[in-house]
Amino acid sequence: LLATPYYPSSGINAEYGKGDLKDIAISPTGRFIMISTIGTLVYIYTLKGELLHTIDTAQMSNGQVSITPCNDLIAASGFTPEVHMWAVQFTKSVTNPQFLQVREAMDLSGHNSGVYSFSFSGDCRRAVTVSKDGTWRVYNTDVSWHLNEDPKLISSGTVAEDGVASVAMSPDGRVVAIATSTNINLYNSETTELMDTLESIHSDIITKIAFSDTGKYLYSCAQDKSIRVWRNRAGMICDVIQWEESLKTATNASHRERLRQQISDNRALLEELENK
């Protein structure tokens, strides 16, 4: 069980030190708030605004700083060619967990230049990074980092265009979306196969992309001051491939019929979306 989140009845008033604010997030367990600056510092607070810890990311300046979606790990990128990760640890009490420490957890490494952006699957078992070196890398992060086990590389691909890139991983970890300029390419995270392309979808540079919690949709926002929503067609293609593989081994008649219907429905929807 996770600790019951504490939600204050009034706003939090916390002094986060020097440096302009860059990112702010609340942990998925509701145990702490993270505030990062454009410098190298990351501040950890309780939901009451009490400072617990300060992290120096040693990145010259912070790039992306965020909390993983399913545990109390903080990840930060910057000028160095890796993503550093720290664990914010509390006592195991369900009703009243107490802060213990912040310790180094693991690094997502292997790039030759700074990391622009990174993202995690919904269960935190996979992560993806995109770098100034023109490549993107997918990692297995389901490791015993507390025993110094490093993340394992699953795949690596090449970014289609030069320039600043933003990356997002679907909640199920099967699809990687990479935005450059006004375009988004979607890839199979294991094979690196290009599965879909959204071209010239904004009138100015895309600054951020993210998948919905269900993975059915992809959101994009850009310097043209617009936010747009797209169907995750690459995820639908992955579903069809998975169902076709399951159909080869399915022995129950009703199960086989259900798989055929799902394949047919998805193919029809993909064709409809293609023709729009």
Give an account of the 3D structure.
With 276 residues, this protein is mostly beta strands. Helices cover 14% and strands 40% of the residues. It has two helices and 19 strands. The chain has helices at 233-249, 253-275, and strands at 21-26, 33-37, 41-45, 51-56, 65-67, 73-76, 83-90, 99-108, 115-120, 126-131, 135-140, 152-158, 165-169, 175-180, 183-188, 194-198, 206-211, 217-222, 227-231. Strands 1-2-3-4 form a four-stranded antiparallel β-sheet, with no helix packed on it. The longest helix has 23 residues, at 253-275. The model is unreliable at 1-10 (pLDDT under 50).
SSE run:
EEEEEEEEEEEEEEEEEEEHH
Count every helix, treating DSSP H or I runs of 4 or more residues as helices: 2
Structural class category: mainly beta
What best-fitting shape do the alpha-carbon axes yield?
Answer: globular
Rg calculated over all Cα atoms: 20 Å
**Average pLDDT rating:** 90
Give the biggest sheet.
Answer: 4 strands, antiparallel
Low-confidence stretches: 1-10
The share of residues in helices is 10-25%
Work out the strand percent: 35-45%
Q: Give me the count of strands.
A: 19
Roughly how many Å apart are the termini?
Answer: 46 Å
Strand arrangement, largest sheet? 1-2-3-4
